[in-house]
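Q: What structure does this chain adopt?
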Amino acid sequence: MVTLFRWLVRLTVGLILLTVALVTLAWYFAIRSLPDYDGSYAVRGISAPVEIVRTTEDVPHIFGESDRDVFFALGLAHAQDRLFQMTVLRRAAQGRLAEIYGIGALPADDLARRLGLYRNARASLQAQDPEVIEALQAYAEGVNAWIEQINLGARGRGAPEFFLYPEDIAYWEPADSLAILKLLAASTTVQLRREVLRARLSLAAPERGQDLVAMRGEPPLPAYAGLFPGARFAAPERGAGPRDWTATLAGYLAPAAGASANGFAAAAGRTAAGGALLANDPQFALTAPGLWYLARIELGSGGVIGGTIPGIPAVLSGRNTGLAWGITPARIDDQDLYIEEVQPGDPNRYRGANGWTEFTTRRETLRIRGADPQTITLRETENGPVVPAAHLDLATILPAGHVAALSWTGGYGNDRSMTALIGLMRAQDRQAAAGTLREMIAPAMVVTLADAQGVGQVLAGAVPHRPSGHQTAGRMPAPGWLAQNRWQGLSPAPAELAELDPESGIVAATGAALPGSGGLGHDWGDAYRQNRLRHLVDSREVHSRDSFIAAQNDIVSPVARALLPLVGAELWFTGEPAARGTPERQRQDALALLANWDGSMSEHLPEPLIYAAWMRALQDRLVRDDLGPLADELTELFPDFIDRVFRDTGGASAWCDIRQSAPAETCTQIARQALDAALLDLGARFGPDLASWRWGDLHRARHVHPALGDMRGISYIVNLIQPTSGGEMTVAHAGFLGHGRNPWLNVTGAAYRGVYDLADPDSSVFIISTGQSGHPFSRHYDDMAGLWRRGEYVVMSLDPALARAAAAGITHLRPAGD
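A:
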């Protein structure tokens, strides 16, 4: 017995020591991939020594003797900090995620291949200006130089994730950067999803379904079933809920995911310091590391500093010595979905404009980790690539014997958007910037501009020409065989939409339309948020950097201010209080809180939680009986719809009557029932004391690591979770997950914020949502997350002396053999 005990002790001690040894070994190899910011490297591809000066926040300031050398060093700096992210973004654009993630990533790969993101990127390379091709080549060589250093110096494969996904790290190519830009363009537009939703609403509720999404003043849409008599409402498959959010972000960006931003500026005459101000905050899915990376590069035209996306050699939002710019995704209608009829008895032919026509086909093989490769057949029609029914809910609207094809401005191989973006960095005034932006194809953007003489905004991106007789005006899928529905070419956004010298000296955009641009789109974003931003910038005669920071971080919900008086008009408590502990008293207490609330979506208050839960329950009650299972997929709030219903616009109050019940319910009754249901749910979560509830208890920002975020144990290291203020409709956007146990989880937001002061350039500021490094063991992995949450910033400067004075490390690059 004693001998057995001794052996058990020895075995236990041995297992402990083995575990410690394995953990130590894993830790050693993981930290080997942390870059040495004070290193000196001999590299091929540069003509003279280059310095990468790192500030205390790990922001690289790159100094070289030629633009080519500077772009080389930017590629190397991106790779030092974000190599795994870059390779994942490239794989997402190439349709090769399943090679590392396995079968779960196959749908994303399939869609990327069918959209032709990488194929069109390669075809666009030679369309760029020669100096842009040289910049892309230099950037690629910089990335590859760091990959060579990893291989030569045994630097832990460049990032810890590569140990879990043991694929070779392929060298970077210039087309890879163009492909990531294509992926970005596919991710920012949501027009395809909107068309499918309008079709589903038309099938589910033919009489009033468009009330949810119609813009004011738009003509009614034809019935989808009238366009396609074989179309029938198809409920989602049982158990097929919304896709897991982490799986959606497997490639950091996903087609049709959507994006937003605020861009606003004030001319020198409207500022206290006598110089123009510009603010910008592109809003994407929150990931760890974030999508954005701060950088400064010193070009021959001068210094440029701001936000970059690893893999793309351009400052997308930032400033140089004479110009500041910011980007806002423009929701122009840049996609059209066509329903194509397949010839009965011959699946290789479809009905074209001149009769039955052969599909253009090609075959590609998808490699899958842990499974056999799959070969897919890619088909195209005259209108664009065929998108299978398994994607983007297309199966719910496709009639039997038909397929869907997509026309998209980004689906072409002669795209000079990279030339436009690199040209923007070199432009020194608004006119030069507007000129180079004429080259933009996709993504479509509203670009806010500011220089010493004034401010302006330009709509950049290709615009499709639709015939005046288009059956749905591009708002809903249309028959692809009719010439009246087909695009008649593309053109740059109309020059007359540029607002380069507004009389007010103020410009502001949230993704909504520029003045006079009606007809270019049918989903112009949130007018409530646009009006709130416009109020913030117009209400002050004189602005400062601090007033712009305050506006950028504004958390007042204009939707709450608009809807609560309307929805609760007949519910506000005026009589005797009900007995404590009763549902009636809890309702009275909730209404009393909301009646005195200013709409601030502060994480420390209970009112935002009550309001958000009430509106969610209310919208569900209004549509559930008419839309059935489709109601489960309406994960966003439609404030214009609720406004129409409670104002009875066009008879919209009919939504308040529940069809399955005998009595006719009023909107007041539905509002009361929804509030009671919301309070019951929140009470079960947080107890009966409303005053102790907090919006931040449920509204927490979750920055998820796309590769490791779902791995038990590791997820606690790589994911970043923190309570946040704001909401979907606030200027400081903080979008919701929309489904599951916690639908108010904050999953989208301003992953980059910048405020550029041209009066005192060194007082400009910026921030990202996580940190510069993508390495979970780096202190720069999350060192900006707390600042970002609190609405704070770090200083951005173009002064080389300041950069060197605050240097936390200087990387020296010298030509190989020097």
